[in-house]
């Protein structure tokens, strides 16, 4: 049965339907929002993701730095003004949990759509090559015998590094002096100059020095040893449970269609091996730790509770 | 251990039309970015980053370095012409650049800015090439007590900046320090004096204050003056003479050295270097009374210093893989994207790349000199705009700049607020410069003081027992007392002469 009329209507309708059918997400122009300024952690992540998506999907991407208020500006924009059609996604780190806990009236993860967790940044403890401590046990022994004698640098106050350090002190029963800096890089400089005894932070910020031996990693705060440093024991191996959950992922605006969120998460989960995304996370010593929308929300529930207790402990 | 073959290869790499084209383009984009308020080096480099993929890493990085240097010059241009810096590094250029342009010597002012920027840039490149590795080791000896000492040394300049009335200068300084406390407490991570406004959680950007206190206040002052429209303002596009430049060379050399050293210390930046160089120029000057009223030395010093910080910042960037500023952070991120890993080993593993960057920097300084001097007569034309249009334009640029820095309407209101504050300060004869100085240095002083005391577990002797910190602090006290002592001695002499 040949129905010319149907064919004609189909042909007319086809181009209209195509944009919506064209594999859905990603759209031709994707807005990658971040609270970081140029060169900051979230900015570097989104620029790498953008480059990767451009070459993988042939789309164009724009990194949109909505800087200010320790992430509050970007969160408010996402919660109130962002388009919900998947043309804008935002980078998230624990900052997006901590800022709403610190001040009232800032939208939190409950007010937007968590899409995917992508990585966990390992938290580690390292010392200078001239340090007297060869192992984490030696450091612990010294710290127990001489309370408050060790100074340990962290990237910034009220950050995940500080939470890990606090948990580390509580679990092992030691007391140290916490020295916050203006970011992880500054803490590493202080350690290179031997102005602090150790640093708790990501290996990514000290890669060169860890690889050429100027700095020595003593322990890892996560379940498994790091692939890049197979000789460094985790803290749980010597009997203390301290695990860091420094995650990186993406959020979408509130009211996003759950199917769309799932689709975005699926697409992002296929990118780990693509370049320059792969170089980005391997060089940064991150662990791929993908969670889809639903699992990400339950993960955030747990992390948010722990963070809330931590913020209270600071006040 | 100089590898001649690597140097030659690098030179041949850089001297290709391809690389030179992108270097000049980078410098040009940088000049424009610097002139436009709200676009700093980090943003400019991020904007060109996507276009550099597919280039040779060396070419891409040289283009970025060119942009960075060009933007340090552009920031000074805006400072001199419209009384608001186009970039943070141009903050100290405003003090003598603006009066000079107002006197009808816009061409001369921009010419001096251009020549000192280029010379500062070129000299710092040579220093970088010669002593990068020992300098990196020196930078590592700087920790919280030393940064605190540098901050206090910087604040001691208040004494020489506010020679008319030291008490008003002190009040302005304290006001600036008070503004710095707004934001997030750097040691507890909790909001501090934010009045429940999340816009204040990152503190008040000092450019926002500067734009208000200088540009908007100037507009308010100008509006009240009778419009001398009929009389065409004296105006000259004439460039500085060779004799004038030669007389400024010692100032430029000294300032480049200061900029290089300050730039090497991660955490201090172009604006701090420019202020320190400005003050040292005043101290060494035979005519310190001209400073603030269009002194050529006062213009050359901060510009030579802020461009020299680029060479300085390359030291920790290349030798330690540590970015000392926003622009350096973007360059570091791009290097990692290109698969390059800065650190001490890069000098031995990638000598050609490193030497290419050195040559690129040196040629960038030359490109800036040529481009800057070609553009200067046209830029200076801004001063020909009739006053009513000019001040309307300045007000527009000021608000646009405030919007561009963070994208928040809140900051536009802050600019207006600080405009009124600046206007009142001028009417009551409070000097605005010490306030800006306190804003630039306040954060570093607070954090390094508190960090030093954590490091020493509350023991204040840490500032006396560390030789570098103790030396800088001693110099700071002397430099604070010097202008006052000189004045007292001068008065005593006058008195004894009369008797």
UniProtKB/TrEMBL annotation, chain A:
InterPro entries: BUG (IPR005064), Bug_dom1 (IPR042100). Pfam families: TctC. CDD domains: PBP2_Bug_TTT. It comes from Natronospirillum operosum. Keywords: Signal. Belongs to the UPF0065 (bug) family. It comes from the Bacteria. This is Tripartite tricarboxylate transporter substrate binding protein. Residues 1-22 form the signal peptide.
From TrEMBL, chain B:
InterPro entries: DUF112_TM. PANTHER family: TRICARBOXYLIC TRANSPORT PROTEIN. The chain crosses the membrane at residues 20-40, 47-68, 80-98, 110-133, 139-159, 166-184, 204-223, 256-278, 317-340, 352-375, 395-424, 436-454, 460-485. The keyword Magnesium does not apply. Residues 20-437 form the DUF112 domain. It comes from Natronospirillum operosum. It comes from the Bacteria. This is C4-dicarboxylate ABC transporter permease. The keyword tRNA-binding does not apply. Keywords: Membrane, Transmembrane, Transmembrane helix.
């Amino acid at each position: 049965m040949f129905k010319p009329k149907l064919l004609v209507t189909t042909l007319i309708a086809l181009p209209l339907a195509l944009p919506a059918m064209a594999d859905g997400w990603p759209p031709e122009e994707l807005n990658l929002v971040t609270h970081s300024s140029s060169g900051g952690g979230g900015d570097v992540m989104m620029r790498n993701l953008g480059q990767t998506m451009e070459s993988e999907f042939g789309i164009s991407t724009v990194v949109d730095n909505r800087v200010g208020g320790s992430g509050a500006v970007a969160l408010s924009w996402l919660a109130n003004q962002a388009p919900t059609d998947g043309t804008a996604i935002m980078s998230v780190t624990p900052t997006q949990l901590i800022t709403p806990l610190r001040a009232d009236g800032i939208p939190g993860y409950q007010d937007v759509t968590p899409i995917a967790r992508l990585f966990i940044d390992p938290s580690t403890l390292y010392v200078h090559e001239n340090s007297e401590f060869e192992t984490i046990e030696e450091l612990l022994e010294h710290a127990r015998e001489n309370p408050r004698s060790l100074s340990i640098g962290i990237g910034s106050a009220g950050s995940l590094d500080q939470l890990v350090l606090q948990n580390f002190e509580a679990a092992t029963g030691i007391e140290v002096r916490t020295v916050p800096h203006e970011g992880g890089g500054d803490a590493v400089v202080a350690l290179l100059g031997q102005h602090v005894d150790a640093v708790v932070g990501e290996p990514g910020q000290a890669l060169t020095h860890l690889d050429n031996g100027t700095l020595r990693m003593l322990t890892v705060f996560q379940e498994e040893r790091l692939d890049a440093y197979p000789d460094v024991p985790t803290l749980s191996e010597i009997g203390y449970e301290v695990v860091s959950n420094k995650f990186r992922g993406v959020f979408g605006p509130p009211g996003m269609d759950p199917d769309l969120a799932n689709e975005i998460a699926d697409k992002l989960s296929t990118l780990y091996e693509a370049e320059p995304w792969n170089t980005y996370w391997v060089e940064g010593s991150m662990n791929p730790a993908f969670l889809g929308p639903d699992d990400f929300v339950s993960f955030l529930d747990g992390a948010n509770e722990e963070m809330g207790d931590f913020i209270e402990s600071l006040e | 251990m100089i590898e001649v073959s690597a140097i030659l290869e690098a030179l041949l790499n850089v001297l290709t039309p391809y690389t030179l084209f992108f270097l000049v383009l980078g410098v040009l984009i940088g000049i424009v970015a610097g002139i436009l308020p709200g676009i700093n080096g980090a943003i400019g480099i991020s904007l060109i980053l996507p276009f550099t993929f597919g280039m040779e890493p060396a070419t891409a990085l040289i283009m970025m370095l060119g942009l960075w240097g060009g933007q340090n010059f552009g920031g000074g241009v805006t400072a001199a012409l419209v009384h608001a810096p186009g970039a943070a590094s141009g903050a100290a250029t405003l003090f003598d650049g603006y009066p000079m342009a107002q006197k009808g010597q816009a061409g001369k002012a921009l010419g001096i800015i251009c020549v000192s920027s280029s010379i500062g840039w070129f000299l710092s490149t040579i220093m970088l090439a010669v002593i990068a590795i020992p300098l990196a080791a020196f930078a590592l000896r700087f920790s919280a007590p030393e940064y605190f000492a540098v901050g206090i040394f910087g604040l001691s300049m208040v004494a020489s900046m506010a020679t008319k009335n030291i008490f008003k200068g002190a009040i302005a300084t304290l006001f600036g320090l008070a503004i710095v406390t707004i934001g997030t407490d750097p040691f507890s991570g909790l909001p501090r004096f934010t009045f429940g406004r999340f816009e204040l959680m990152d503190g008040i950007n000092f450019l926002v204050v500067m734009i208000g206190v200088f540009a908007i206040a100037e507009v308010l002052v100008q509006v009240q003056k009778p419009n001398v429209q009929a009389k065409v303002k004296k105006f000259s596009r004439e460039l500085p003479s060779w004799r004038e430049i030669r007389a400024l060379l010692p100032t430029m050399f000294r300032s480049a050295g200061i900029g290089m050293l300050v730039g090497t210390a991660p955490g201090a930046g172009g604006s701090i270097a420019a202020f320190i160089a400005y003050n040292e120029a005043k101290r060494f000057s035979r005519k310190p009374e001209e400073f603030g009223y269009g002194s050529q030395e006062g213009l050359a010093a901060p510009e030579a210093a802020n461009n020299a910080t680029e060479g300085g910042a390359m030291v920790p960037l290349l030798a330690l893989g540590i970015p000392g500023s926003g622009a350096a952070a973007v360059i570091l991120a791009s290097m990692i994207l290109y698969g390059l890993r800065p650190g001490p080993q890069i000098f031995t593993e990638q000598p050609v790349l490193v030497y290419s960057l050195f040559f690129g920097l040196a040629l960038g300084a030359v490109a800036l000199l040529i481009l800057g001097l070609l553009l200067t007569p046209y830029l200076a034309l801004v001063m020909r705009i009739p006053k009513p249009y000019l001040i309307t334009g300045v007000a527009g640029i000021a608000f646009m700049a405030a919007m561009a820095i963070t994208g928040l309407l809140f900051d536009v209101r802050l600019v207006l607020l600080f405009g009124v504050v600046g206007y009142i300060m001028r009417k009551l004869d409070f000097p605005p410069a010490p306030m800006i100085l306190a804003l630039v240095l306040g954060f570093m002083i607070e954090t390094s003081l508190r960090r030093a005391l954590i490091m020493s577990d509350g023991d204040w002797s840490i500032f006396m027992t560390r030789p570098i910190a103790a030396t800088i602090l001693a110099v700071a006290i002397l430099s604070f007392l010097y202008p006052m002592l000189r004045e007292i001695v001068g008065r005593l002499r006058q008195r004894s002469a009369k008797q």
